Amino acid sequence: MQAAADSEGGTVVFSRLAGGILDILRSFRGEYLSGEEIARQMSVSRTAIWKHVRELRELGYGVSAGGKLGYRLDSIPDRLYPAEVRAGLGTQFIGRADIHYYREVTSTNEVARDLGEQGAPAGTVVVAEAQVQGRGRLRRSWWSPPEKGVWMSVLLRPELLPGEVFLLSFATAVAVARAIGRLLPLEAHIKWPNDILVGGKKVAGILLEVKAELDQVHYVVVGMGLNVNQEEADFPPELRSRATSLRQAAGQPVARVPLVREILAGLEDEYFGLARGEGERLWQEWRNLDITVGRPVEVVTSAGSCSGLAAGVTREGRLVLRLPGGEIQEFAAGDVTLAGSRWNPDIP
Ligand code: BTN
Fold first, then answer.
1. 71-75 and 99-105: which strand pairing?
2. In a domain, 344, yes or no
3. Cα(91)–Cα(97) distance, rounded to whole angstroms?
4. What is the pTM of this model?
5. Which range marks the domain in which residue 151 is found?
6. How far apart are CA 236 and CA 64, in angstroms?
7. Are residues 130 and 231 in the same domain?
8. Are residues 105 and 22 part of one domain?
9. Is the pLDDT of residue 8 over 50?
10. Are residues 97 and 152 in the same domain?
11. Closest residue CA from atom 15 of ligand 1
């Protein structure tokens, strides 16, 4: 458990005592434990326990006090506190070093990039309840309202060549789509390059930022934004036709902490797979989830727009478009709009 509360940078972490009390109460979930016993285990006074139980309540934990019975943990808030994300996190290095939690931040990618510059270890996670300058692809802003989504960045230091880094965005897209499918009765798909769609609308986006030299990657910031608990009316009107949330799609509120854990574990699996040279497997997984290839699409880039059939994605992650005249054009970046139904799902 980390020390210090609400430090200057906006990070919220529990006092060491509150964290310790939480661990003890968690292991007795549903049962009362006397203040005296907790005080004994923590080697502090009962007054200190009382004070820090109050801190836990202020952080959103439901802790009831039953007189002589002591304290009982009744409920856990759906906040992305490091202590919650770590409890039951099945990873070896992602989220194991540091999880930096903010109530509000400019952009988790920006914070993760600063941490990358300062030499923070691979696997460092930055998560925020809200972003005020959330960044999207193609220099767009990313709407990140408080406590409604997962706004998270992971710092990685992969042994990849700069030209292979796009594989991490494929790995992330697969991890996010899989996590949704595993935890919710929903089918998530990937739209090139790495939008996650449910029911044809975007629920999540991925933004990689890379610090590299010609032949060496220093670090990669993997940013992901998931719309989780917004209602339709919460969305800015201009997004409503294109974006949705997991809650809207599933018809029920969605707990964010298990989602974060599942995504981090899935990302780590894919990352280890890449390190073992299993790029081909990742490639297949990505293709199984992709809904772009085989469809008529419109690709919009800074140079204009182009319509055609999405005929494939190259090993370098570029979208291959077959134009109406039969010519082939490749795109490294751009926005894809799907038109009509799948023409030929077997196109490679
Ligand atoms: C997209 O345009 O689809 C990518 C959106 C990526 C948004 C996430 S939210 C967490 C991280 N921090 C940012 O500022 N952006 C990414």
1. unpaired
2. no
3. 11
4. 0.91
5. 82-289
6. 39
7. yes
8. no
9. no
10. yes
11. 135
Cβ < 6 A, ligand 1 pocket: 107-109, 131, 134-137, 140, 142, 144, 151-153, 195, 205-207, 223-225
Query: Counting atoms of ligand 1 from 1, which one is nearest the CA of 138?
Result: 2
Per-residue DSSP letters for 289-319? HB-STTSEEEEEETTEEEEEEEEEE-TTSPE
Residues 70 and 88 grouped into a single domain? no
How many domains does the chain contain in total?
Answer: 3
CA 42-44-45 angle, 5° bins: 135
For the CA of 112, the nearest atom of ligand 1: 12
Q: Ligand 1 centroid vs 243 CA: distance in angstroms?
A: 14
Rg (CA), the chain: 22
Count CA atoms closer than 13 A to 275's CA, side-chain side.
10
Pocket of ligand 1, candidates 224, 226, 259, 336: which has the most ligand atoms within 8 Å of its Cβ, to mutate?
224
Q: C-alpha 104: how far from its chain's center?
A: 16
**Alpha carbon of 133 to ligand 1 centroid (Å):** 10
**Last residue of some domain: 75, 90, 108?**
75
Do 87 and 200 reside in the same domain of the chain? Answer: yes
Amino acid type, 46:
R
Rounded distance between C-alpha atoms, residue 132 and residue 151, angstroms: 11
> Where do we find the tokens 């939480």?
22
Nearest atom in ligand 1 to the alpha carbon of residue 224 is 8
Same domain? 234 vs 327: no
Picking from 75, 98, 123, the residue at the C-terminal end of a domain is: 75
For residue 164, what is the domain's CATH number?
Answer: 3.30.930.10
- Counting atoms of ligand 1 from 1, which one is nearest the CA of 140? 2
DSSP code for 176 = H
Whether residues 326 and 283 share a domain: the answer is no
CATH of the domain at 21: 1.10.10.10
- Per-residue pLDDT reduced to its tens digit, 171-194: 999 999 999 999 999 999 999 999
> What DSSP character marks residue 244?
-
Least confident of 6-15, 23-32, 240-249, 321-330: 6-15
- In 3D space, the residue among 155, 166, 219 whose CA is nearest the CA of residue 192 turns out to be 166
Average pLDDT in the 324-329 region?
94
Of 302, 307, 343, 313, nearest to 325 by C-alpha is 307
Question: Domain check: are 238 and 218 in the same one?
Answer: yes
